[in-house]
Design a protein that fits this description.
Length: about 220
């Protein structure tokens, strides 16, 4: 009887293990099921023509290309923004370093002006003991050299045209020479720049036409 069952199972294509009990999860059986399922899927999609498949692929490719272009544009914009940001940071840092010592230099300007005032009074300066005079002049030279190395420059516009944006007028020197009108006759106080930026304008006297004499009728009676 058992032999008959074994024969019937063989006829049906069901593999029998050594113990005579059929294994529903045998590898060959699973492969058969997968192959049949794949064939069923292929049969069910047989209504899709190759032209439809090509059309879908083209649409998909078009979408992928559009997405790639959008991502590339976004990346390029982000890169450009980052480069501009780095450039602004470097420029800001350089600007900060250029004028970082402005406060200290600004505090030293009155000291320089004291030197200038002392040297301007030549008669009094010549009466100072030569040893002291040479020492003070050397200190002034050293201080000015250090400040120049940090970007400070003096403004001494004597003889130049008066510029109200650059100079401060504190008086007029009368002259009959019209060619001298509005030219700087005397520098009362030097001006200074730091790396091209105006720290303080020079105080000057400018040439101008002499005041018109009063007529006898204008004199008080």
């Amino acid at each position: 009887m058992d032999d008959q069952k074994h024969i019937d199972n063989d006829r049906q294509g069901i593999p029998m293990p050594k113990d005579g009990v059929p294994n529903a999860f045998d590898d060959e059986a699973v492969d058969d099921v997968e192959i049949e399922s794949y064939n069923d899927d292929a049969d069910s999609g047989s209504s899709t023509t190759p032209e439809d498949q090509i059309k879908r692929l083209r649409n998909k490719l078009r979408e992928c290309t559009k997405e790639k272009t959008a991502n590339l544009d976004g990346w390029q914009r982000a890169k450009a923004d980052f480069v501009n940001y780095r450039k602004r940071e470097e420029e800001g840092k350089a600007e900060f370093l250029k004028f970082a010592g402005e406060g200290v230099i600004d505090d030293l300007l009155p000291v320089l002006e004291s030197f200038h005032s002392a040297f301007a009074n030549k008669e009094a300066w010549e009466r100072v003991d030569p040893a002291w005079r040479n020492g003070v002049e050397y200190i002034h030279t050293q201080l000015l050299q250090i400040l120049r190395e940090h970007g400070l420059s003096e403004i001494n516009p004597e003889g130049e045209d008066f510029d109200p944006n650059e100079h401060t007028s504190v008086g007029v020197v009368p002259t009959d020479d019209k060619a001298r009108n509005h030219k700087i006759a005397e520098v009362i106080q030097l001006g200074y720049r730091l790396n091209g930026r105006l720290l303080c304008s020079p105080r000057v006297k400018i040439y101008g036409e002499p005041a018109a004499p009063k007529h006898e009728a204008d004199k008080p009676g």
